[in-house]
Amino acid sequence: MLKLIFTALILNLFLSVSAQEVFYTKPYLQVGYNAAPDALTLVWHTTDFNANWTVEYSNNKVDWKKSNDIQSNTVSIVGTTSHKVIKATMEGLTQGGIFTYRVLKNNSIVFTASGNAPKSSTQPYQFVVFGDIGAETKDQKQLALRAYLEKPDFIVVPGDIVYESGTIAEYRKKFWPVYNADTANENGAPIMRSVPFLAAVGNHDADSRDLDKTPDALAYYMYWAQPLNGPMGAEGGAIVPILKGNETNKNAFTNAAGKAYPRMTNFSYNYGNAHWTFLDADTYVDWTNKELTDWVSNDLASSKDAIWHFVVFHHPGFNSSVEHFEQQQMRLLAPVFEKGKVDVVFNGHVHNYQRSFPMTFAPVKQGVLLMGGKDGKTIRGRVVPGKWTLDKKFDGKTITKPNGVIYIVTGAGGQELYNPEQEKDTDSWQKFTNKFISTVHSLTTAKVSGNKLVIQQKSQDGKIVDALTITK
Ligand SMILES: [Fe+2]
């Protein structure tokens, strides 16, 4: 009997060790650098530099296709375990279907899962939005489970993906185990292997650019595969700060990031009947730069066929919280969004939920730049005064055609909540704010069906704390 138990223990140990050895991070879906409407990219990490990998996928579990586009980057950064990030494109997915995929290592199947192929422009779909997530809190993990239970087709993160500095080590601890867990429970859920996440960068993802201080920072560029169709930018220009560090650390980072750096922080993506624009709102970006605002204008103008236009970035221009109130730099883009017929802007950064009235905003000049940091030389934000016009007739129930853009702050995705005292103190809200919920963590769910969009804000237990319908 003892011998049997001992053998079982050894076998168990062997199995768990070999399972760990196959992947450093298990496979997860991304929309990919090219983001074709019938394609997704499968990404995984491995410490085995010699293995031969194959990805097979099927729309019907009968006919299997093989990915013929598998690329990898080597992450070899001081203080971290060297690994490869492998990206396999799966093309020819039946839109709106569920496909099955399997990963083969040296010709043996080592991972199988199913995924949601992107929807076509005529199919209904649903998505979840939550920001400020990877804080390793109970609330983050419970909201991951809530997101999984909502059965979204994809998930959008308006920045602050992983705290404190967006490092490799932090992703390993606070991100993959929660959103790419093997089972669904109070600690996380197997979401990312079946539906892609899309993310804008927040300050905690992209502000650490001194690689001598934090060599494994900027992991966003290594681990995400999102469209590379935004403005290119150059270090020291309007979009990209100077990368600091010795040559070894800088080379290690650029090798690990590959072609994602520095372009991947601004991009657009078409899904179903919607056009999505993801922007970098971090304070190092100069949003008074005309080339940059022209790119957003042109991007929106070139997507006129889309029924819905959504914009995602981290720092909200319209925020009633005392916290981060002065960081209003993205207000400068309000006229561009209005001209581009943007329906909803999703933000994070402020750790609560806020919804504006449908509104337009005319900035007075470019606002006043605020400096901060220890030496007073870091840009803290920009105060942008101006005139807003609010549509108070829209109620999202009986009157559902808004006149203007609706701005939603959905930054209650896991990190400690901001300003709970303001929830009932309506006098402390700015005039553009219609809803302000800061005493519960929550996520945004959205269901799109043709010309109708139903948004619900839900807490961990699924309780609806805000709801609105928008129609065209
Ligand atoms: Fe933030």
Low-confidence stretches: 12-17
Measured as a percent range, the helix fraction is: 10-25%
- Straight-line N-to-C gap: 71 Å
Beta-strand portion reads: 25-35%
Secondary structure class reads alpha+beta
Mean pLDDT: 95
Q: Quickly count the helices.
A: 8
Morphology: globular
Strand order in space, largest sheet: 14-15-16-17-23-18-24
Largest sheet: 7 strands, mixed
- The tally of beta strands, per DSSP, is 27
How big is the Rg? Answer: 22 Å
Bound molecules: fe (ii) ion
Structure overview:
- The chain is α+β, with helices and mostly antiparallel strands and about 475 residues long.
- About 15% of the residues lie in helices and about 30% in strands.
- The protein has helices at about 1-20, 140-150, 170-180, 205, 220-225, 245-255, 290-300, 335-340, and strands at about 25-30, 40-45, 55-60, 65, 70-75, 85-90, 100-105, 110-115, 125-130, 155-160, 180-185, 190, 195-200, 265-270, 275-280, 310, 345, 355, 360-365, 370, 380-385, 385-390, 405-410, 435, 440-450, 450-460, 465-470.
- The chain has a seven-stranded mixed sheet, with helices on one face. Strands 13-10-9-25-26-27 form a six-stranded mixed sheet, covered by helices on one side.
- Strand 20 and strand 21 (about 380-385) form a beta hairpin.
- It is globular, with a radius of gyration of 22 Å.
- Mean pLDDT is about 95; it is low at about 10-15.
- Fe (ii) ion binds near residues 202, 203, 314 and 349.
- Fe (ii) ion binds near residues 202, 203, 204, 314 and 349.
